Amino acid sequence: MQIYLPIAEVSVNAFLVLGLGGLVGILSGMFGVGGGFLLTPLLFFIGIPPAVAVATGATQIVASSFSGVLAHFRRRTVDLRMGTVLLIGGLVGAAFGILLFNYLRSLGQVDLLVRLFYVVFLGIIGALMFVESLRAIRSVKSGKPPARKKHSRVHGLPFKMRFRVSGLYISVIPPLMVGVLVGVLAAIMGVGGGFIMVPAMIYLLGMPTKVVIGTSLFQIIFVTAFTTMLHATTNYTVDVVLAVLLLIGGVLGAQLGTRIGVKMKAEQLRILLALLVLGVCGKLGLDLLLEPAELYSIGPVGAV
User: Fold this and answer.
1) pLDDT tens string 211-225
2) How far is Cα 186 from Cα 191, in angstroms, rounded to an integer?
3) Residue 295 and residue 283: Cα distance in Å, rounded?
4) For the whole prediction, is pTM greater than 0.85?
5) What are the start-end ranges of the H helices in 108-155?
């Protein structure tokens, strides 16, 4: 069933969009990521303009993350204090990211730059996560528990706060910086930032994996909602029809993903997420290198 998207100015299959939303919702519940790192490139692949994909994809992330975090609240695996610190940094980063996005858009090269951002960040993060996950799995198979790194630099910073749910007593500076970075990426790339935040919370802050997922989703809800509002009011690139279809699929998928994630081991979750990140990175990289089917496109002057 074809449906016309007024802001994107293209026709798409409604069931295909629902399926994409459901797939990303499952990932959100399983891994504690908003799923935008996968959703936004998938929207590129079905013909949605990057500027619209970035802005509209954020709405689905809000819904799937909210649905997923409710399940984690019931299991008491959300560190609200840590989530609030991350959120403060995220809101500041999102505001700065919108300003940067608008500047890139004024240059007329936002499509290319968004894709390059994806290839670089997904490639680096995916490779690091994959290597570390393999080490963790080998340690478990050999009967030796994976060595937990001592976060001496984090513990040496000032302005310490106790995070009881996570069992940590660390400075608020690293979580704030992680939040700022995630906020910038949310604005420019249309992602929740979970693929950055989840590894940072595990390896930099030393949080338990089960607490990381729920806390990550909590922060993602508010940062992506704020980002969507800014895109809608400054760029007018949020397609409501596309957003509603993605929302329906995302909410349903997040509940299923949460149930799957609870049954899997932490090492398995991390290596699956790493493989997904690398797969999307590879597809985007190929699209940038291979010659497109149509070398030129016709559009109004100044169109993005």
Assistant:
1) 887 888 888 888 888
2) 5
3) 19
4) no
5) 110-141, 152-155
